[in-house]
Structures are given as C-alpha cells and as structure tokens.
Amino acid sequence: MSVQSAVLPLARTPLYDLHCELGARLVPFAGYEMPVQYPPGVIAEHLHTRAGAGLFDVSHMGQALFEGAHALRAFERLAPGDIATLHSGQMRYTQLLDANGQILDDLMVTRLADEGGRQRLFLVVNAASKEADFAHISAALPGFALTPLPQLALLALQGPQAAEVLENIVPVVSRLAFMRSAEFEFDGFRLRISRSGYTGEDGFEISLPAAKAEAFARTLLFDPRVLPVGLGARDSLRLEAGLCLCGHDIDATTDPVEAGLLWSISKRRRVEGGFPGFARVAEAIARGPARRRVGFILDGKAPAREGAEIETPDGRAIGRLTSGGYAPSLGRPIAMGYVAAQEAIVGAAVNLIVRGKPAPARIAATPFTPHAYVRRA
Amino acid sequence: MSNLRYTKDHEYIRLEPDGAVVGITDFAQSQLGDVVFVELPVVGAVLAEGAEAAVVESVKAASGVNAPASGEVIGVNSALEEKPALVNEEPNGSGWFFKLKLSDPSELDALMDEEAYEAFVKTIA
C-alpha cells in the first residue's frame, strides 16, 4: 500500500451501506473502500455472472463530460481511437497515450447528442488514475470544458440474463446494441445506459445520480437472477475474457501494438496519426512489436501470478506475467504476460517460474472464454 | 487446558497422540476466500518455528503458512491436492495442512490459547 493511501481516509461509493448489509468483505482499492467479495465468494460470484446476472458497483471509476465546438477531433489528439466518426450514442474503447505512444490509462468514450453547437463526449476512466487523467486532458486541451461527474454512480449488470432482468425495470433497454448508449427513465429520473462491460459477457453499464443508486441496485437485486459481485470476480472475469487491466497488463511502459490493442486503432488513425507517440506506434505497426501480450494456460494447479518470469523449456527468460490467477470457468490457472515477439506462438510450451520452481504452461489465444457480446440487439 | 494453540499469523496447532496437526483458522480462510491450491511440505522435512511450511493460494493471492513450532513433518493432508476447498469448508477438520513431530513442545507455551486468539481476532476484524 502506498504511503498516500495509508494516510488519506478511504472514500465510499453511494452503495457502501448496501455492501455492508449484503455482508461484503471490504478492501481498500484505488482510494475507495470496495467490496472484494460477498458471502457466496469469488468463484460462485464469477460462475453466476457467466450463467445469470451479476451486479457490480463500479462507482469508484471516473466519469466526466468533455465538451466544446470540435471536441471529437480535439480528443483524438490524446487517444488513438476513432473518436471523430462517432455518432451520438456510440461508444469506443481507447487509450490515453503519452509522448512515447505508451499507455497512461484506458477508457470508454461515448458521444452524446450535441448541445448548443458543442460536441459532447462522456468519458469513463479507471479509478486509480482519474485525477491524473482529468488533469492531463484539461492541460492538453485547454480550449475545452472537462467536467468530472462525482455526483454520478456507476453500476454494471453483466451476464446472459442481464438483458431480460434490466428490460423488466427499464423497458426497451434490450434494444441497445453492443457499444451503444442511450438515456432512459426509472422512477422519474434519467439514467444513461450502455450495452458494454468488462467481463466478456453481454451486459450493461448504468450511470445514474448517486442519490438514486441504492434504490436502483435494490430493485435489480430483488430479481432472484441477480447476485451482487465484488472486485475479486470482476478481476477473474476480465482475465478469462483476455481484457487488459491498466496498471498491470498495460501501463506507461507498454504501447497499444504490443498490448494487442491495435483493433482499437482504426485504419484512418493509423494513416492520419495525430495522437501522442504516433511515430513510434506507426513503426511498431510497420515492423511488428518487439514483444507481444499473450495468454497462458497452466498444466498444473498452482496459479502463477503477476511478475512471474516466463522461460522457454530450456531455461531462457523471454518475459514476465502481468496478470495471473485461477480461472473459475476453466477450473484451472491462467495468466497473461509479454514475451519476445518471435516466441509468441500459440501452443508453444513455456515454464512460468513460481516460487523458484518451473510451472509448465502453454501459450494460449485470448480470450480464454469466448466473448458473448450481443452485436445486434 | 485445551490442546489447541494459535499464532498471530492465524495458524492453529492441535496436539494429538500421534503428532501436532497444523492448519489455518476459520478466520484466516474467511479472509482468504476460495482456496484453489495448497502447496504442502515434504514428509520428512525438518522445520524451524516460524519457517514457511506451506503456501495457500486463493483466487486472488498466495499466502505463506508457517510452522507454529519446530519439528519434523510426519504427514501431509494430500486430500487438499484434489480438493483445496476443504480449507474453506472445514479448516479445523478435513482442511488440515500437515502434521509435525514436535522437537520442543514447550514452544507452544508462547502461543495463544483459544480465548486469547478470539480476543486477538476481535482487535483486527
């Protein structure tokens, strides 16, 4: 734990009392007191999300509005995603890059309807870096208004039954397609709901006034198909889905090409550039990166964790793990990490060094569990 | 006087006629969450008091299990290899870790009894 987080009091989300009532085990995370698990435990919560519907409190994440006359084009100066072509209600995954084309944070960007000649983007960034992200955006694009929205809570409802559950509470919400967002009404107040998430499942993310969050969460939990899910299962779900966790799998030492995030940079952006570190990213695209992020499935039962060294069977070090743990849906340990590009061959045998001993594994394609996104509702 | 003693690291040690059984407490398993793997010591290993003897892996993290007292490992709970969740289900029973032949039973005097351990848990829970 950093000195700062040990000194500063922990913040609480609007659902803190509900977490306590539900018997959550709370842990410090990104300056917040967050539920890591509820009484059923990480494995049960994980499996329930893959079979039914899991409710996640992600109110610690940073929500903000970015607006101005040509806000879409302007935002492209900070991120390589195709923002300028977004239609109202469309969302994209992208990254804030530094001058070397390396990753400061990853985020979701949604275009809202224009208002009074201003283009508007709704941003959701990671909790740990939200202040830094907002300061970075404001400083880099001074002609635009960046307004953090701490008065909003954020919930995620994820899983194959999420659409049916939410449709009962918010009619017509299941008509949203994947990576689309719209405003809805519940009990007289407005919600912004997108069909998105970070579990690999179909699902929704719901941004709503903090004062209404508990009532809305209770309404969802009243449905027997919904279980509350903590950060523990959120992590194992995203790992199985092969999704990067910022600060671990991607950070200011990795670029989007080696991280396997080139899909999030459109052809237009690869040609036009205009984002930080474009020259380096373009070179990595042209020549191929020196290393690549890959998945691993372990042969044995002992998990290999972040930081473990990756070796070839003859003992040559080729990289390190950036995430690793038990995959409840597979019933065995999995991991992600970077290896030298010439070693990034699916099926290749490697050893992951766990407590000084080699744990045999094979390089695997990600996602480990197939994505179940609903492309067209 | 009970045959159970506890460490500040949440191991228990229970004196039985054929040796001292070591495991982690119910509080410890509840803090760890779902146990997915246990690395046990080798039978015949001689452990010093406080030495790392086993590793317990939950979904999220690995934690060391130390020898509450010095001795030789005379048995391990190999059922944990197939069913590590026994640590969650019955930490004081079928979820035990290993058995020691104590080299100096008086070392147990320095450990907490049940009442002291319960009071200790209240200070951190």
TrEMBL record, chain A:
Keywords: Aminotransferase, Transferase. SUPFAM superfamilies: Aminomethyltransferase beta-barrel domain (SSF101790), Folate-binding domain (SSF103025). GO terms for molecular function: aminomethyltransferase activity; transaminase activity. Its EC number is 2.1.2.10. GO terms for biological process: glycine catabolic process. It is an enzyme of class 2 (transferase). Residues 15-267 form the GCVT N-terminal domain. It catalyses: N(6)-[(R)-S(8)-aminomethyldihydrolipoyl]-L-lysyl-[protein] + (6S)-5,6,7,8-tetrahydrofolate = N(6)-[(R)-dihydrolipoyl]-L-lysyl-[protein] + (6R)-5,10-methylene-5,6,7,8-tetrahydrofolate + NH4(+). Substrate binds at E205. The keyword Transferase applies. One of its GO terms (cellular component) is glycine cleavage complex. Residues 291-368 form the Aminomethyltransferase C-terminal domain. PANTHER family: AMINOMETHYLTRANSFERASE (PTHR43757), AMINOMETHYLTRANSFERASE, MITOCHONDRIAL (PTHR43757:SF2). Belongs to the GcvT family. This is aminomethyltransferase. It comes from Methylocella silvestris.
TrEMBL record, chain B:
The modification N6-lipoyllysine is found at K60. The keyword Transmembrane does not apply. GO terms for biological process: glycine decarboxylation via glycine cleavage system; protein lipoylation. It comes from the Bacteria. Its cofactor is (R)-lipoate. The keyword S-adenosyl-L-methionine does not apply. Gene3D superfamilies: 2.40.50.100. CDD domains: GCS_H. Belongs to the GcvH family. The glycine cleavage system catalyzes the degradation of glycine. The H protein shuttles the methylamine group of glycine from the P protein to the T protein. This is Glycine cleavage system H protein. It comes from Methylocella silvestris. The gene is gcvH.
